[in-house]
Amino acid sequence: MPPSRAALLSLLTLVLLAGQASADWRICDEGIFRVTGGEAEPAVAHAGQDIAFRVHGVLDRNVTAGMLEVWVSYLGFNVYSKSGDLCEAVPCPLAQGELTLEFKQSLPRTAPPGPYMGCFQATAASGERLFCVDLNFRIALREAADTVADATADAIDAAAQHAVQ
Ligand SMILES: *[C@@H]1O[C@H](CO)[C@@H](O)[C@H](O)[C@H]1NC(C)=O
Predict the structure, then answer these.
(1) What domains does the chain contain, in order, with CATH numbers?
(2) For the chain, first and last CA: distance in Å?
(3) Ligand 1 lined by 96 (C-beta under 6 Å)
(4) How remote is the CA of residue 133 from the centroid of ligand 1, in Å?
(5) How far is the CA of 61 from the centre of ligand 1 (A)?
(6) Using a 6 Å cutoff on CB, does residue 95 contact ligand 1?
(7) Ligand 1 pocket member 62 (CB < 6 A)
(8) Nearest-angstrom CA–CA distance, 32 and 134
(9) Does position 156 have pLDDT exceeding 60, yes or no?
(10) Which residue windows are coiled coil (predicted)?
(11) What is the mean pLDDT of residues 70-85?
């Protein structure tokens, strides 16, 4: 029996939702810095490495000072938060127009692998919201764990070949 139209539609919906959930960035609040994109570089990082978070957008007017708040969550749990001077994170003043803001962060060596979300929220000294954006990134399995996994796969292959002979 061919799949029903309803089944195909719900499958399509699932695919679209999955695509949305894995988007790199999401606006969490509108501000005078209109966000047009964002990403983590590398998107899949290693624990202990540096990661750069970039937010692209258009700034409505010059900003000379502000605050930056950052939250990082892992599997829905808040694992890190920090707030401070925006101008310690990026060079100020921020000039009106198209801009890319880059925030560098070093990842703890002990960070477990998996999906993470960084929420970056900035406010101008005037009190106006600059932007709020969520950026997704992943921490890769540790190199050592990868090596063990490879060795295990090799051993299973060898055992399988032995069994076939
Ligand atoms: C914004 O900053 C730029 C560069 O610093 C300056 O040339 C411009 O006059 C400023 N605009 C306003 C409205 O202050």
Answers:
(1) 24-160 (2.60.40.770)
(2) 42
(3) yes
(4) 25
(5) 8
(6) yes
(7) yes
(8) 17
(9) yes
(10) none
(11) 95
